[in-house]
Write a structure and sequence with these properties.
Elements: H1 10-21, E1 27-32, H2 38-47, E2 55-60, H3 87-102, E3 107-112, H4 119-129, E4 134-141, H5 148-155, E5 159-163, H6 169-180, H7 186-196, H8 200-212, E6 216-219, E7 222-225, H9 233-243, H10 248-260, E8 263-264, H11 265-269, H12 274-282, E9 286-291, E10 294-299, H13 302-311, H14 314-331, H15 338-349, H16 355-367, H17 371-383, H18 387-400, H19 404-413, H20 421-438, H21 444-453, H22 458-474, H23 478-490, H24 496-512, H25 516-528, H26 530-533, H27 540-554, H28 558-565, H29 568-575, H30 579-595, H31 599-612, H32 620-633, H33 637-650, H34 659-672, H35 676-693, H36 696-708, E11 715-719, E12 725-727, H37 728-735, H38 743-755, H39 759-771, H40 775-788, H41 797-808, H42 816-819, H43 827-837, H44 842-849, H45 853-867, H46 872-880
Parallel strand pairs: 1-4, 1-5, 2-3, 3-4
Antiparallel strand pairs: 6-7, 8-10, 9-10, 11-12
Helix pairs in contact: 1-2, 3-4, 4-5, 6-7, 7-8, 10-12, 10-13, 10-14, 14-15, 15-16, 16-17, 16-18, 17-18, 18-19, 18-20, 19-20, 20-21, 20-22, 21-22, 22-23, 22-24, 23-24, 24-25, 24-27, 25-27, 27-28, 27-30, 28-30, 29-30, 30-31, 30-32, 31-32, 32-33, 32-34, 33-34, 34-35, 34-36, 35-36, 36-37, 37-38, ...
């Protein structure tokens, strides 16, 4: 583990440095809770102060020196003090001594834990703060007694007092990545943030405990925490110190809240003395928060609960949990989560006897996509003689928890009990789902079709047909899938969940075909009925997201992708370890980042998706294909090839519907390796296959990739009646009239402009791409325009400025289209060009590089010719528009 880098706090650090440089000499004190990062911020600020410009003294006050006169400033003052001076004289002597040692430099006195200064030191600090050439900066802890001279610093307007807030989620994620030397998956980061409440000291102890207990693992470069918390002694001692000694009454309050939070205040006061509740609140152990019309009680810090639960004896733990369950049962389970909470308390306390309670709670947990909790409750329901219903639910949850083998065993154990009726149709579909997606058995499709024929009830048969339809879609048997799904919708007896699953199948197919309006209408209908199908089939959400995500990705609706990545399902899936959901949404997020030109974010997010889906084959291949695309965007041919190999290895045959994404990624891998003929051949063959399969939405994006490779005139499709073949540009013109949305006409214009070698039209297309936030496409179209303007020396300046502006919005972008502009500049030519762009004269450059002025001028002339610029006025933008050649602004 690396040292703890200074992450975040940029505004606070700048505020501290500005205070030191303030002409009026106002100082700055940061206050905050213990461990919030005050001391580290102060040290970082002092480190950034040049000692040749400032006379800097750093002081760390402590309880040890708080009782000694001038003990707090022992690091500053000499050991021997003049004899016979009055207290005021000693203060004056100390100030004069510091001014003498400063030798005319401004004085900066930095004091950590200023509240621990002894009275004489506090008085001296106040006196120094009044000096015209001195600035006091420091930290103090909330809730501590503050010496009057220190308090007077801000009441006398000598310093500003700033409350230092805890780190936010983004800063915590950045700090974790810096510590561990790599990105941390979102769920782990969120839980560590919640437990630490943004306190760096507590975060440090949590990470050390997780590292020491081997609870941190790395997959595809992404760190993941198991969630098991082994409290290190140092962390336990730290929390124990904060909690302090408790009376038995206050301990009961804290323990009940630890096991039951959030706990209604009225419910809590039925079990304990209200006076003890008040005492716990006064001591800062609990907090009261309003939730609608109810006043809830929570612990003041999440780690208080971890420590209290760990230290509570098993017998008392079970008694407390049974008490909580009994209290809530007495008042009635009125809120949505009450049933779930009672079931968990009953299960944990060993008092769970009602399989219906456990089964209902398991269904509720799965409806919230909390896979671990739902698995635990469903398993308990089955063990309590919950029968086939419990087996069906448990098998479903195990499937989505990446345990398909056990799921099959659970289903087969109750096979004799489900021979007919609705229960039999549910058993068939769950077993089919586990067999097809969990175990990748393609024969499942024919098996479930044959079993469905034996059913006599229309509703039961509709459920089976809906599953068969979506399986056939994923196997790419699109004609049969559409027919079956439509038959389910046309059958009045079809259950709601079966109807909406069939509608998702149709919506997904319409998306792939480029019928985005019809797809959007169908998805909106499914979403509108969510409350009616979620209880029966919560995983239907995944089918809906796949249909919706396909539409948004193919239509390049980046704002739409942002919306679904940020909606409630994403939050629930992430919190509940619903990996298929979080993994797929991460793939979409990486896709949007890639099209925006955010290479680092695209690669990091796609790596996260690969890590989340490492144990599942449903979307694993898609995740690695997106990783290959992200690596290709960055120009990393080795990483792209490795990711493509993993995509092929992990891609499930039953997910054939995803083949366009994988094969499109393969074309990008060829291109980034510099093998443009292979890339062209791959993409052209893929476009032909997609045309035959009727997947026009995918075909459009593949043809767009050919345009990006400057192959707008390449032949595609079958031979026409005149013996020729359509060009990419001609085929795109046809598709622009068949596919919905604004993207197809824009792509068709792009192809036409490239085919006709029209720089002006290419620049107009780039503007339209920019307006849609498709920064990579815009930059490539601009680069293509510049490449066609090479013979127009002196006229490329504005276009280069536009390309430079686009590339400033990107990071780590290096594509074949952009490489068209990369001339073979030597290191010497590039060095001279950079200096010239910074405004240095030829004579100054010659003196710096020990060359003759004539040599510099000759080099510059060759640079102008290679870059296609008229002179130094266009050189700055030209350098910025060299991807992979110059990553920094010459200014």
């Amino acid at each position: 583990m690396s040292r703890w880098d200074f992450v975040g706090r940029t505004d606070e650090l700048n505020r501290l440095l500005s205070a030191v440089g303030d002409p009026e000499g106002r100082g700055l004190l940061f206050s905050g809770k213990a461990g919030v990062g005050k001391s580290r911020l102060l040290r970082e600020g002092v480190t950034n102060l040049p000692t040749d410009r400032y006379a800097v003294w750093s002081v760390s006050a402590s309880a040890t020196t708080a009782t000694l006169p001038f003990g707090g400033l022992v690091q500053v003052l000499p050991a021997e003090q003049p004899q016979g001076l009055s207290p005021a004289g000693i203060l004056r002597w100390a100030v004069d001594l510091l001014q003498e040692q400063a030798a005319g430099r401004p004085i900066v006195l930095a004091i950590d834990d200023v509240h621990l200064l002894d009275p004489p030191s506090a008085a001296l600090v106040h006196l120094i703060a009044r000096a015209e050439n001195a600035t006091v900066i420091g930290t103090l802890r909330d809730g501590e007694q503050i010496p009057l001279p220190i308090r007077a610093l801000w009441t006398d307007d000598l310093v500003d007092l700033i409350e230092l807030d805890p780190l936010g989620p983004t800063e915590t994620t950045g700090l974790l990545a810096a510590i561990l030397g790599g990105p941390v998956d979102a769920k782990s980061s969120q839980r560590l943030f919640r437990l630490s409440a943004g306190n760096p000291l507590l975060l440090r102890e949590l990470v050390l405990a997780a590292s020491g207990g081997d609870e941190l693992s790395r997959t595809y470069g992404i760190w993941k925490w198991t969630g098991r918390l082994e409290l290190a002694p140092s962390l336990t001692d730290l929390i124990d110190t904060r909690i302090g000694q408790l009376t038995s009454g206050v301990r009961s309050v804290v323990e009940l809240v630890a096991f039951g939070e959030p706990l209604g205040l009225q419910l809590l006061e039925k079990a304990v003395d209200p006076a003890d509740v008040e005492a716990a609140e006064e001591r800062g152990l609990i907090s009261l928060v309003h939730d609608d019309r109810r006043l809830d009680v929570r612990l003041a810090h999440p780690l208080y609960g971890e420590v209290m639960r760990r230290q509570c004896p098993v017998s008392r733990t079970r008694r407390l949990q049974a008490t909580l369950a009994g209290l809530l049962e007495q008042v009635g389970t009125r809120r949505r989560d009450d049933l779930l909470r009672v079931a968990v308390w009953r299960l944990d306390s060993g008092t769970a006897q009602d399989p219906a309670l456990l089964l209902g709670a398991a269904a509720q947990a799965f409806g919230r996509y909390d896979v671990p909790l739902a698995t635990r409750l469903a398993r308990a329901a089955l063990d309590a003689d919950g029968g086939p219903d419990a087996a069906e639910l448990l098998a479903t949850i195990l499937m989505f928890g990446d345990q398909p083998e056990e799921a099959i065993q659970v289903l087969d154990s109750v096979a004799r009990e489900v021979r007919d009726g609705p229960r039999h149709s549910r058993w068939l579909t769950v077993r089919g789902m586990v067999s097809y997606w969990g175990l990748s058995r393609e024969s499942t499709v024919e098996e479930i079709a044959a079993r469905g024929d034996t059913l006599t009830d229309s509703a039961d048969q509709a459920r089976v047909r809906a599953f068969e339809a979506i399986m056939r879609l994923h196997r790419l048997d699109t004609g049969t899938a559409l027919r079956l799904a439509q038959a389910v919708l046309d059958r009045p007896a079809s259950p709601m969940a079966a109807r909406e699953l069939a509608r998702c199948t149709i919506a997904h197919l319409h998306s792939a075909q480029g019928q985005y309006r019809r797809s959007a209408t169908a998805i909106a209908r499914v979403q509108a009925e969510a409350t009616r199908w979620r209880g029966d089939m919560p995983y239907l959400q995944l089918a809906m997201e796949l249909a919706r995500g396909t539409r948004l990705a193919l239509s390049a609706d980046l704002a739409g992708i942002d919306a679904i990545v940020a909606d409630e399902f994403a939050d629930l899936a992430g919190a509940g370890d619903f990996r298929l959901g979080t993994g797929y949404l991460a793939i979409l997020q990486a896709y949007a980042a890639r099209l925006r030109g955010r290479g680092d974010e695209a690669l990091k997010t796609s790596l996260g998706a690969c890590a989340v889906l490492a144990t599942s084959r449903v979307y694993a291949g898609l995740a690695h294909a997106e990783r290959a695309q992200a690596a290709a965007l960055r120009g990393d041919a080795t990483h792209a090839a490795e990711a493509m190999t993993e995509a092929d290895r992990t891609h499930a045959p039953g997910m054939a519907v995803l083949y366009p994404w994988l094969e499109q990624a393969r074309g990008a891998v060829h291109a980034v390796a510099g093998d443009l003929p292979a890339a062209t051949k791959q993409l052209s063959a893929l476009a032909d296959r997609l045309r035959e399969d009727g997947l026009a939405g995918h075909e459009l994006l593949v043809l767009l990739d050919l345009v990006r490779l400057d192959r707008a005139t390449a032949p595609v499709g079958p031979t026409c009646t005149d013996g020729g073949r359509r060009t990419v540009a001609q085929r795109l013109a046809e598709l622009s009239e068949r596919i919905d949305g604004m993207l197809p006409p824009l792509v068709a214009r792009y192809a036409r402009a490239a085919a006709e070698d029209s720089p002006d039209d290419l620049l107009a297309v780039a503007d339209d791409f920019t307006a849609r936030d498709l920064t990579v496409y815009a930059a490539e179209a601009t680069a293509m325009a510049l490449h066609r303007m090479r013979d127009r020396a002196g006229a490329t300046g504005p276009a280069r400025e536009r390309l430079a502006a686009l590339l400033r919005r990107c990071d780590q972008v290096d594509t074949p289209a952009l490489r068209l502009l990369r001339p073979a500049l030597s290191e010497r030519e590039l060095e001279i060009a950079r200096l010239a762009a910074e405004g240095e004269t030829s004579r100054a450059i010659a003196e710096r590089l020990f060359l003759s002025t004539r040599t510099v001028e000759n080099h510059l002339q060759r640079v102008y010719t290679k870059l296609g610029v008229a002179g130094r006025g266009e050189l700055r933008a030209a350098l910025w528009s060299l991807p992979g050649q110059d990553g920094t602004d010459p200014a």
